[in-house]
Amino acid sequence: MNSRTRSRFSVATIAAVGLIAIAPGCIERTETIRVEPGGAAHLRVVFKGDPDDIRTGDAMLNEPGPWSVVDTWEPQDDGSQKLVRTATLTVPAGTKWPEQYCPENSDLAGLALAMPTSVRIEERPDGTYYHFTRIYRRRDWARVDYFRRTLVEPAAEPLQGKQKADVTPQQRENLARGLLQYEKAKALVLAQAASEALRPGLKQDEWLVLRQAIADVYDRIGIERVARILQMEDQQVGEEIQRLVDEVSGQVRQAIRQTLSASDATGSLGRRFAEQFEVERRRHSVSEDLQDENWTVSLELPGRLVGHNGDSVKGGVVTWKFAGNALCDRDQILMATSVVERQ
Fold first, then answer.
1. What is the pTM for the complete model shown?
2. Tell me, what's the pLDDT at 317?
3. What DSSP line would sit under 193-212, residue for residue?
């Protein structure tokens, strides 16, 4: 697993039901875009939130690139500090806008959040029109989230509002079982995505044998072990879950190699599958990171605003607001058109 991709073996899920105090911090993203009459654009992005979330997030400006980045700190009432990362970039007229925050040569290119943007300038008899479009690309989510809702939520619901000490052994066991079943289902979904992405891919019988081998890794984990972890002190829970993540990840990789080696004399198929499986896991991790984030995007175009699909307009500036889960399984499309009328 890439060191920058935080594994979340249901830490966020457990935190959500109030059993432990390990919850990902919400990140506020404020994006400001100003387009000049000639077509050049000035971009300003402000990330505000927990320092670890910003520094380790996959859809952040954490790698050297064309942006100018400045970090400042914002004290909080509880004595903590939020990191405020401000990035600016000027896009000359006629050049391509960056589609991701990471550089094009980053190992996250193609995995992190994509937001292709264009400004089309159209000359008409009555004036010059500016057509702005930005698309925040959807993240595949429903295929995995279905299992969270059907396997984890029913076990978590009776625990809402309870202190850890008030959770009964049976309730803890039910949650442990639900979490294990969810993690197994998620691994199988991502493995199937990896299989479908390979060209040439696995034969159906090869895939079914491999599928069972991966499932067996999770079936060997005792429910009692997970239940014991849920009883531990908050910090220890996170450490033990991470230890379990590393252990399971290694066993899954080994299962892939051993299972595919029987029908893969060169070792190429097993290696390619393992690499693609890791890609799918990282892709899901990025999507998971985006769930607790919020966007405010403001746009100023030359001339008079003709139309838009934003949430509000003030002083000719269009603003959109949406949360990360708005990107689940559908594109978030921002559009606005203005005109500089001929005199």
1. 0.84
2. 98
3. HHHHHSSS---HHHHHHHHH
